[in-house]
Design brief:
Helix content is about 40%, strand content about 20%. The chain is built from ten helices and twelve strands. Helix 8 links the parallel strand 9 and strand 10.
Length: about 280
């Protein structure tokens, strides 16, 4: 699993600014007086905040003299109207960086906030909320960072991290037991997860030496039965059709993990804004 570090932040901030400023730069802000200003970034809603390090790098990349002082930290719950950061610097530089900086905060905070809503629903149960590979292209690391801020855990980062045998692999190979056995033989130290969508599939592979079984789109009755069959052999995970309304029922079956694509591919952006103080 890759990690968020300064090199990565600088790289993705550079790409985001290039996207916003090429080829001619900010052709609107060049017409204003370039005076020294003080501004504040404010949360427009209750949320789990994230992305302040990306926002700071955005302003600093355009003007190293810009002062960016945070008033909270990533992962904190904040209320609507909370001042997240104070900035001091040249007006033109701050305006050029404003939208890109706010986009980072909105995106990461949005993922963190929706993740935390699911986490709170299973609070008290031995069940973890995890994300999937259903992420926005080229933004996977950022979104998985948001998941961790919200109290979730990360699934595999990419196809190299672990063997995950899914429905299409099984459909092509036909024989699920044979495919699992071949994967075990060729695992080279990697973990193996096997996805099943019915009890019959599960019974064909039960007892084989892999790590986790993923129950996809099972109803509660079958999911409860599948967990009972599997729990002494494997870590268990449920996925498919998970919502804030049904997650309590799913977690009550005893699964160890629930994976949710929604927390990355459909997370609403958190509202935040930049206002001038003086």
């Amino acid at each position: 699993m890759q990690k968020i570090n300064n090199k990565y932040i600088r790289s993705i901030v550079y790409d985001a600014l290039r996207e916003d400023l090429k080829p001619l730069g900010d052709i609107t802000s060049r017409n204003i007086n370039n005076k020294k200003i003080t501004a504040k970034i404010i949360s427009g809603q209750n949320c789990i905040i994230g992305g302040l390090n990306f926002a700071k790098e955005t302003f600093k990349t355009l003007d190293k003299k810009t002062i960016f002082k945070t008033k909270t930290i990533d992962g904190k719950k904040v209320k609507k109207g909370k001042v997240l950061a104070i900035l001091k610097g040249n007006a033109k530089s701050i305006l050029k960086a404003e939208r890109v900086a706010l986009n980072f905060i909105g995106l990461i905070s949005g993922v963190a906030t929706i993740t935390n809503k699911f986490v709170k629903k299973v609070n008290g149960k031995s069940c973890k909320i995890c994300c999937t590979r259903k992420t926005l292209p080229n933004l996977r690391l950022i979104q998985k960072y948001g998941v961790s801020l919200g109290g979730g855990i990360n699934h595999r980062f990419n196809l190299s991290d672990e063997i995950l045998i899914k429905d299409n692999h099984i459909a092509i190979n036909k024989n699920i037991k044979n495919l699992v056995q071949r994967s075990i033989k060729n695992r080279k130290g990697k973990k193996i997860t096997v996805e099943v969508d019915n009890i019959n599939q599960l019974k064909k592979i039960i007892g084989l030496k892999f790590n986790r079984v993923l129950f996809d789109n099972m109803n509660i009755k079958n999911l409860r039965k599948a967990v009972k069959i599997s729990k002494k052999y494997y870590e268990t995970e449920a996925s498919g059709g998970v919502t804030l309304k049904n997650i309590n029922k799913i977690s009550s079956t005893g699964v160890n993990r629930i994976s949710i694509g929604q927390i990355t591919h459909s997370a609403p952006s958190v509202d935040c804004k930049l206002d001038f103080i003086s």
